[in-house]
């Protein structure tokens, strides 16, 4: 891999992860500056040449969602106009992913709209992480890699805890495939929480499919937003006799006062551990004895290396993670 052929940049919501990836690859992070004008307009300027280079640009389209998205689009445009050879957009957290279908008449499919923006701005490839729904891959008319960072958190989780009676739990029907993959790879039983949303941001859980009594439960999901889903599921698991309740979620949005609520659950002994990734830049601020932040930097560094060698991602990146997990069982 010739370092001079590629360059990594990190936008406002992903400067730390981009720097960490550059450090792992032993390259200098590219310099760019984002300026915000008094009226709210954004200008992004790349301070070094990208001509003929493979560019990897990191940005999470998390809070402030629309500014982060606009900053990304403007950057892609600048890179295209500066003759970058390829523009590989790495989005650790893809905002608007939950608007992936019309659940009622006259609703938008914003995840598709955003995909169109990214393509038309000039991206040549998109790299997503633990995406909310796999069909989002098809929203892009350019190559997409959807990476599975859950394995990184799983690895940390199994390193720190030894459970005899582990049970993987999906907090809703939408997450069953994700939870089942993990349960299968660990040879652990699976349970599913019957969740309904009577209104936006309201959660109702009524039943659990599967046996959780005296089990060390691991609730797995793609994201925690307000925390309503995980807190309702944890409460029900406790009522049904779970021995311990642990949570694993790639994207820790922690909107409103979610972090205070989780810290209270931990203090009251209702939740034992929470594993999150650093896909959201603020994740490190939430770190505590029981809130573990797992870095995706090594994973991304390996991805960039494998991609630059034109090798298979599934064989070299996931394959290695699953082998490691199986060795721990
Ligand atoms: C829903 O389908 C998602 O996977 C999450 O379960 C949901 O977005 C979490 O939101 P909250 O934390 O606000 O319940």
Question: If you had to describe this structure to a student in words, what would you say it looks like?
Answer:
This protein has 329 residues and is of the alpha/beta class. 34% of the residues lie in helices and 24% in strands. It is built from nine helices and 14 strands. The protein has helices at residues 15-25, 65-81, 110-121, 150-160, 176-186, 228-239, 258-267, 297-308, 313-328, and strands at residues 6-10, 32-36, 42-46, 54-58, 86-91, 125-129, 144-147, 166-170, 190-196, 204-209, 216-224, 244-252, 273-277, 291-294. The strands form three sheets. A seven-stranded mixed beta sheet has the order 10-9-8-11-12-13-14, sandwiched between helices. Strand 5 (86-91), helix 3 and strand 6 form a beta-alpha-beta unit. Helix 2 (65-81) runs parallel beside helix 3 and helix 4 (150-160) packs parallel to helix 9. The relative contact order is 0.12. The model has no long low-confidence stretch (mean pLDDT 95). The chain binds ribose-5-phosphate. Ribose-5-phosphate is lined by residues 98, 171-172, 174-175, 203, 221-229. Residues 98, 171-172, 174-175, 203, 221-229 line the site of ribose-5-phosphate.
